[in-house]
Amino acid sequence: MTKTILITGATAGIGAASARRFAAGGWRVIATGRRGDRLRALADELGDACLALEIDVRDVDAAAQLAQLSPPWGEIDVLLNNAGLAPPMDVLQGAALEPLLNTVQTNITGLVALTHALLPMLIERQGAVINLSSVAATYPYRGGAVYGASKAFVRQFSLDLRCDLAGTGVRVTAIDPGMAETEFTLVRTGGDQQASDELYAKMDPMTADDLAGTIWWIATLPPHLNINAIELMPVSQSFAGFAVARDQ
Predict the structure, then answer these.
(1) What is the pTM of this model?
(2) Would you say domain 4-180+207-232 falls under CATH 3.40.710.10?
């Protein structure tokens, strides 16, 4: 039986790599995102295996309509909540408010609303919810207050959702990646390619394909197994030391 995965944020990075991985594995892929030109290119690449829908997860009503798709696309087995963003790395007291609220609306509000809308179908099909969190949910850094808090929400939401769904057969997983070279830093810095290149220089970061492979593994495990949470980093990344402010 052919299965279907719905992927948010499928226009680049982990989302696009996951779309390719699942299509290659014989799944139907519903690819959603904000950039229509990229979605159309992905759909052209993947052919009949892909349904591309230009949807911003911050538009709660539009996202909820995904629960009304007709079969076979409306028979969703896995929801991959991948869409997310981070505001510039300004300290909170110096940050503009709008990018912070956009982060909350994308990483939290949109994720909760879409998951809520699809749960009846996922329960009926004993499917799975896979949520992309981040190591920023655990390890704080200067300038990461709202992003880190939003990803901590995603991880805790995943654990509590698993409690709510106990006995339904639905699996729930939170994935906490570390440094993966995608467009994440480009988006965060407003398109600063040099900043992105410098961040990932000489450190062999994870790739979008690395994470897509992990997502594929989780989604295709036997249905009686649940990965509650998984944290991944490149070997070259470790944990920051404590910061100490000293009198001058």
Answers:
(1) 0.95
(2) no
Cβ-contact 147, 190 below 8 angstroms:
no
Structure tokens at 235: 């070997």
pLDDT of 46-84, one tens digit each?
999 999 999 999 999 998 899 999 999 999 999 999 999
Count Cβ atoms below 10 Å from residue 123 Cβ, excluding itself. Answer: 13
Q: Which residues are catalytic?
A: 147
The order of strands in the sheet holding 78-81 is: 50-54, 28-33, 4-7, 78-81, 128-132, 171-177, 229-232
- Domain positions in the chain: 4-180+207-232
Q: Tell me the C-alpha distance between 145 and 142, whole Å.
A: 7
d(CA 134, CA 137): 6
